Amino acid sequence: MISVRLPATLQVGTSDTLVFTEPLRTIADLVDALDRRIPGFRDQLDDSVFNFAVNDELLLHHARNRQLSDGDRVEIIPTISGG
Amino acid sequence: MAVRDRVARLVAELPKDPQYPTQGATVFVDLERQEMQRGYTPLKVVRALLAGRGANMFYLHRLLDETLQPLHPDIPLIFGSGVLTGIVPSAARGNATSWSPESGVLMDSNAGDYFPSFIRMNGIDHLVLYGRAAQWTLLHVQNGRIEFRDATPYAGLDNIDLRERIPNDFGGTWTRDLAMVNITRAGENQVMSAAIMGGPKACYARGGPGAKMGSLKLKAILVQGQTRDFETAQPYKGYNRTIAQKLLDTSVVKHALKTMGTPFLYKPSRMLGAMGTKNNQLTTWTDRLDAEHITPYRSGMSGCFRCPVNCRPLNEMNQDAADRYGRGDGPEYVTLGKFGPNIGVDRIEPVIRLNNICNDLGFDTASTGSTIAWAMELYQRGIIDTATTGGIDLTWGNAEAVEELLFLTSRREGFGHVIADGTRAVERGHYPPAALKYRMAVKGLMQSDPHDARILKAFALGLAVATRGMDHLRNRVTLEINARINDDPAFKERLYGSPVSAAPNDYQTKERAVRVCENTYAVGDSVGMCRFTTKLFNSPSLPGLDEFANQVANVTGLQFEAPELNQIGQNVMGVERLINGRLGVGRAHDTLPDRWFDEPVTVGPYAGERIDRGEFDRMLSRFYEISGLDEQGQPEGRWREQLSAVLGA
Asked: From CA B193, how far away is CA B196, in angstroms rounded?
């Protein structure tokens, strides 16, 4: 089982967390699964503002190839620059 | 040569009429003699440096006497608005420029809100202020006329009280027909981290501009009158709609800036292990300060003149009218970081309260928070104790002590006098020399933002070479923190004009990205565009040099291609380096705090990362080479000659 926490602006429905029970090997697989569940989600994610974090580890590159394991907590985090 | 002689010589060279539609005058204000002269920035200067920050550098270069000291009344304080300020959506910015009393190098600080736009609507692009007024003075600007008013009744007022008094005394309404820049008691008392306030929170923060304004006995500049449209060279409103739509369609605006504002960045920074904590001894901190925890207190969003983004979060913690700090404007990410993890505070309520106090007292939260964090580490290490602090317990996280210290600092009382001297505390004998090892500053300026840059090498290089000192807003390659861009080499190459390494902690090729960002941001400042809505800072799809060129042509009739604007950005940096060179700045000052070289990050995916001195030195050399700088970081060869020809005598 892999859980995905979405930012408020990407949430569909009332819950901020989606759960996937099918085997997902990488973040790329997870994006496919998200797009199947929420059609058009892949396009929304194809955006530099969104980063992935796995178990609170922020991924700055090679993100889509990141391996996933059962029980991982994934979060999609908008990232801006501050001031 | 005295400043009046320098001004006289300069004014004699300036055109007496506007050089392009919408150009406002440069007004030279002698506060001591209450005299004024006017001229217009020459076209050759505009073509080389534009207006705003760029032309400010022209005026400072011509009027600076480096044999004096920054707070001498012959050292001018210069306000400048950008070419597009007040005309284009999100272009509401202006710069305040001088010789920094805080750092001892260039002072150049940028702010928005309403003043930079309103002063332009009075036909004034630049204000050059010098001479020490005989008494506290307010400059009143209306219908293009400037009058000297006695500000003695306003002396001693901080930001909240002053902004309540002014509409009662002059009439008018803030944001509709009143705009003001002002100092607080901190500025009056020449506190090194005193800002010039431009609104309830917006301020010219960096380098001690409030102290500089206080040294001239200038309490405020008030602009009064109805807003108006400009007569431009050709129609511009259609393209304004294009720019506004581009802003609103950009995902970072939709998903972050319009909803929560900049505190969004706290979470990724702490997860990365790059959140400056306890004066950067640590690099991660509690999730209790994530932006979502501010949400219960966010009462709305606010913004600058004619900006469709409205990125400024307002706060309300209570409705008790007697608690003047129960509500306010902010906090931004910088303040959240500097008054949260950097001083060991782990609850959001005291951070918001300290933010509201800083806005009232008129502090640059970056320098003030960092200066207090520095003192806390010295206290932790026993380098100072309660005998030094006057009994104040500077234990990490003691928000009550910090609150007390802020008020003492604004009055320069007790240990507040030490904090008020900022990065100069050792030089002025408050701390022993050993304290310098823990001072997180470059070129005498504390770091602007809370991001610990030991991991991202482009961030580190930017902080080292920024002309005003350790500051992320001059050149940060912010998109290095976005995996979507790092994982698309072709896109990244198009963005920066040449290949840039995908690995955030790689030293190679990062100088190229810093060069492009520094140029783009300098142009943004010179046209008056907000950094948050300028391409490369928050997004690759926001307005950049192409859009600036199109709208500068519409507004002024002056034609620039994007590569020419890119060169103008580099020119601005070049003149700033010439000014810094006169102030004794060289290669040795383009560096980083020792802690980042000597101590590795201990948490997160990049544990073990630090700055390697040899790699950094080589990266700096490559940066100089592609920037046309000599071994001391000064413009060289033909480019230097070209800049000298523009700057004149």
From this structure: 10
